[in-house]
C-alpha cells in the first residue's frame, strides 16, 4: 500500500486532453501515472509499450465521442494524480438508437490520493456532462476493490460480473487439444475452418452480423441491461486500421458450414513489440442455431495450436469472460484457464445518482 498524500481539492487543476496542444512533458507525466497504476493491479506483468499507449490515447474509440480529463495536484502541474474519461455514442454510429441514452465512464486515481473526495468530485462532473448530452444512464467496469466499493456507495446497480482468466502456455494439455480437434472434425464433418488477419471483402458483411449477434447472445448477470454494439463493415475496417497503427495482429479462425454460412469464430490479438509474451483472446462464439456439435471446443483448440506453432514469444493467454456464460467458462476451465481477477460492471440512473450525490457531503 503506497503512502497517502494530502490533496486540497480547491488547488487541483483539471485539464481536457487535447492531442493537438500537449505540453512537451505531458507524455512523461502520463507514463509515470499510467505505469504506477498498472503495477498496482498487475505487479508481475511487464509494462505496456509506451508508443502503443500513446497511440491508444490519441486514436480514441470508433463510434464514440471520448472525452478525457487529467488532474494535477496543483498549478505547478508536476504530476498527474488522476485520469477520468466518459464516452457517448456518436450520432452517426450504427448502434446510436439503442445506446443513445447510455454512456460509459471511468475514473482512475493514483492510490496516494484516494479517499479524499476526488472520485466524488470527478464523478459529479461526469454525470452533469453526460446528462447535458441527453443521456439517462452511465456505466463503468472495475477490477479494483476501491472501485467496487465506490460504485456501491454512490448508488450503482451491479449489472455484470466478469473474470479475467489466464492460461499459461506451458500448462496446456495437448492431449485434450488433439481430442477436441478430432471430435470437432468427426461431429461436423462438412464444416471447414478458415482463417484470416484482414477480413476478406466477400465475408465482411456476414462477419459483422456474426459479431453483433454473438455479442448479443453472451449471457450476463442482467441481460436487460446489455450494451448492444452493432458492427458494420466501416467500423470493422476502422478497428483493423487502429490495430495496425498500434502494431497489433488480429488473427481469426471461423467455421464455415456446408452451405457457406459462417457459424462461429474465435480471434486473438497480439503484438511483437507490446508485451509479446501476452496473447489477448478476443471474441469466441458459435451462433445458437449451430451449437451442440463441439464447434466451440474445436475452434479454441485450433487457435491454441496456431499460437504454439506461430507465436514463439507467447507465454500466456488472457481472456475476459462473463461469469454467467456457463458454456464458455466450462470450455476455458477444461483448457486450464485460471481466474486471475474479478471485474464488476455497474450502471447508474442519472436522476437517482444526482439526487444521491447532492445528499452526500
Ligand atoms: C474508485 C475511485 C475513483 C474512488 O475515488 P476516491 O477519490 O478514492 O473516492 P472518494 O474519496 O470520493 O470516495 C467517496 C466515497 O466512496 C466510498 N469509497 C471510496 N473508496 C472506498 C474504499 N476503498 N473502500 C470503501 N469505500 C470506499 C466511501 O464511502 C467514500 O466516502 P468516505 O470516504 O467519506 O467514506 C478510486 O478509488 C480509484 O481510482 N480506484 C481505482 C480505479 C477504479 O476502480 N475505477 C472504477 C470506478 S469509476
Structure description:
- Helices cover 37% and strands 28% of the residues.
- It contains eleven helices and twelve strands.
- The longest helix is centred in the N-terminal third of the chain and has 16 residues, at 26-41.
- The model has no long low-confidence stretch (mean pLDDT 95).
- The structure holds coenzyme A.
- Coenzyme A binds next to β4, α4, β5 and α5.
Can I get a quick summary?
The protein has 361 residues and is of the alpha+beta class. Helix content is 37%, strand content 28%.
Keywords:
361 residues; 8-stranded mixed beta sheet; 2 domains; 4-stranded antiparallel beta sheet; alpha+beta; globular; binds coenzyme A; Aminopeptidase
Distance linking N and C termini: 26 Å
| Bound ions, cofactors and other small molecules, one mention each | coenzyme A
CATH topology of the largest domain: Aminopeptidase
Total domain count: 2
The helix content is 25-40%
Just name the CATH architecture of the largest domain: 3-Layer(aba) Sandwich
Summarize the main sheet.
8 strands, mixed
Spans where pLDDT lies below 50 across 5 or more residues: none
Which structural class is indicated by helix and strand composition? alpha+beta
What is the 3D shape? globular
The CATH homologous superfamily of the largest domain is named: Gcn5-related N-acetyltransferase (GNAT)
CATH class of the largest domain reads Alpha Beta
**How many DSSP helices?**
11
How are strands sequenced across the largest beta sheet? Answer: 5-12-6-11-10-9-8-7
Question: What sequence of helices (H) and strands (E) makes up the elements?
Answer: EHHEEHEHEHEHEHHEEEHEHEH
* Strands, total number: 12
* Strand-residue proportion: 25-35%
Radius of gyration: 22 Å
Amino acid at each position: 500500500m503506497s503512502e497517502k498524500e494530502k490533496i486540497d481539492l480547491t488547488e487541483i487543476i483539471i485539464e481536457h486532453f487535447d492531442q493537438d496542444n500537449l505540453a512537451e512533458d505531458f507524455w512523461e507525466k502520463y507514463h509515470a501515472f499510467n505505469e504506477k497504476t498498472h503495477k498496482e493491479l498487475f505487479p508481475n506483468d511487464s509494462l505496456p509499450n509506451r508508443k502503443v499507449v500513446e497511440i491508444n490515447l490519441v486514436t480514441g474509440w470508433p463510434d464514440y465521442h471520448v472525452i478525457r480529463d487529467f488532474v494535477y495536484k496543483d498549478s505547478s502541474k508536476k504530476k498527474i494524480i488522476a485520469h477520468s474519461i466518459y464516452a457517448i455514442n456518436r450520432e452517426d454510429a450504427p448502434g446510436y438508437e439503442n445506446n443513445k441514452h447510455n454512456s460509459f465512464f471511468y475514473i482512475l486515481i493514483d492510490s496516494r490520493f484516494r479517499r479524499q473526495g476526488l472520485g466524488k468530485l470527478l464523478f459529479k462532473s461526469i454525470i452533469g456532462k453526460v446528462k447535458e448530452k441527453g443521456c439517462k444512464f452511465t456505466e463503468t467496469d472495475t477490477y479494483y476493490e476501491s472501485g467496487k466499493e465506490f460504485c456501491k456507495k454512490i448508488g450503482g446497480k451491479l449489472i455484470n460480473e466478469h473474470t479475467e482468466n489466464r492460461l499459461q502456455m506451458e500448462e496446456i494439455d495437448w492431449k485434450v487439444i488433439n481430442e477436441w480437434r478430432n471430435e470437432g472434425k468427426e461431429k461436423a464433418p462438412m464444416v471447414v475452418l478458415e482463417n484470416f488477419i484482414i477480413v476478406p471483402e466477400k465475408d465482411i458483411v456476414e462477419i459483422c452480423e456474426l459479431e453483433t449477434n454473438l455479442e448479443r447472445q453472451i449471457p450476463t448477470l442482467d441481460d436487460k441491461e446489455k450494451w448492444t454494439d452493432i458492427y458494420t463493415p466501416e467500423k470493422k475496417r476502422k478497428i483493423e486500421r487502429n490495430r495496425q497503427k498500434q502494431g497489433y495482429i488480429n488473427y481469426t479462425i471461423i467455421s464455415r458450414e456446408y452451405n457457406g454460412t459462417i457459424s462461429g469464430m474465435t480471434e486473438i490479438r497480439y503484438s511483437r513489440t507490446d508485451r509479446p509474451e501476452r496473447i489477448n483472446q478476443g471474441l469466441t462464439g458459435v451462433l445458437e442455431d449451430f451449437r451442440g456439435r463441439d464447434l466451440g471446443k474445436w475452434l479454441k483448440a485450433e487457435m491454441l495450436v496456431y499460437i504454439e506453432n506461430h507465436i514463439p514469444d507467447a507465454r500466456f493467454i488472457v481472456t475476459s469472460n462473463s461469469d454467467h456464460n456457463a458454456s464458455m467458462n466450462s470450455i476455458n476451465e477444461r483448457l486450464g484457464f485460471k481466474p486471475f481477477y474479478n471485474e464488476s460492471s455497474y450502471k447508474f440512473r442519472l436522476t437517482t445518482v444526482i439526487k444521491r450525490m447532492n445528499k452526500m457531503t
